[in-house]
Design a protein that fits this description.
Elements lengths: L9 E8 L2 E8 L2 E9 L2 E6 L5 E5 L2 H16 L1
Antiparallel strand pairs: 1-2, 2-3, 3-4, 4-5
């Protein structure tokens, strides 16, 4: 038997850090990462690592990188 897919609610919260807009990625009430725009690129950062692990061309790609890394290492 296969498992049913479970819907997961992902929320985005924009905040200002040092005058720069940062988008926090939340699952439930837990912050799992953040996306920061640096010039024309976007940096994805996991909340647990505190350093960027991916640089992408679009916001959506960075968001996908964070969600993929979260689900890969979650268990």
């Amino acid at each position: 038997m296969s498992k049913k897919d479970k819907a997961i609610s992902v929320a985005l919260n924009e905040t200002k850090v040092n005058g720069q807009t940062v988008t926090e990625v939340l699952i439930g009430k837990q912050v799992i990462g953040q996306v920061t725009q640096i010039e024309e690129r976007f940096e994805a950062e996991m909340a647990s690592a505190n350093k960027p692990f991916a640089r992408t061309k679009s916001f959506d790609e960075s968001l996908q990188e964070i969600l993929s890394a979260y689900h890969l290492h979650k268990g």
